[in-house]
Amino acid sequence: MTQPLALADPARVVATARSWRGTPYHDQASLRGVGCDCLGLARGIWREVVGPEPFPIPAYSRDWGEIGPREVLADGARRMMIEVSPAEAGPGALVLFRMKPRAIAKHVGILTAPDTFLHAYERLGVIEEPLSPSWRRRIAFAFLFPQR
After folding, report:
1. Over pLDDT 70: what percentage of the chain?
2. What tens digit of pLDDT does each residue of 103-116 get?
3. Which residue in 67, 88, 105, 127 could disulfide with 140, CB within 3.0 to 4.6 Å?
4. Spatial CB neighbours of 30, under 8 Å, sequence gap ≥ 6
5. pLDDT value at residue 1
6. What is the pLDDT of residues 27-38, one digit of tens each?
7. Of 50, 128, 44, whose CA–CA distance to 82 is shortest?
8. What is the DSSP string of the chain?
9. Buried b / exposed e along 57-84 (16+ C-beta atoms within 10 A)
10. Half-sphere exposure of residue 91, counting CA atoms within 13 Å on the CB side?
11. Phi-psi region of 128 (alpha: psi -120 to 50; beta: other; left: phi over 0)
12. Side-chain half-sphere CA neighbours of 113 within 13 A
């Protein structure tokens, strides 16, 4: 039987995520203040809150995952995080969004409050914005960061 993972402090996750605000958008990058995409934001928060990344992320294109049934991001998150139902996710949770109905989840954000989230968005960089009904209904998966 495996030991359950301890959870990272949600307030620390949120504070770390907010320290990335204003980082410019840059595909496949993951450096606070320099550039990141949505996955790079999650990777950077992981490094600051949990520690070194447990496995390398292969290069990916903008249209990755547009074809095929495999939930690549969710499968990767399950390898190292604690999955919760989207309804149970609160501040500090990593959420995966489906950008189109019936598509796989391929956008990542961090809940910062019950009604706000932070994400890296093309042309805007890392921003914190309201978790509007249209964003909320796109949440497909939610995960909690483990403790270091």
Report:
1. 92
2. 899 999 999 999 99
3. 105
4. 36, 39, 40, 41, 43, 44, 47
5. 42
6. 999 999 999 999
7. 50
8. -PPPPPBPPHHHHHHHHHTTTTPPB-TT-EETTTEE-HHHHHHHHHHHHT-S-SSPPPP--TTTTSSSS--HHHHHHHTTSEEE-GGG--TT-EEEEESSTTSPEEEEEEEEETTEEEEEETTTEEEEEE--HHHHTTEEEEEEPBP-
9. eeeeeeeebeeeeebebbebbeeebbeb
10. 17
11. beta
12. 8
Q: Is 123 exposed, middle or buried (0-12, 13-18, 19+ CB in 10 A)?
A: exposed
Amino acid at 90: G
Q: Residue 13 has which token pair?
A: 């996750």
Pairing mode of beta strands 125-130, 139-144: unpaired
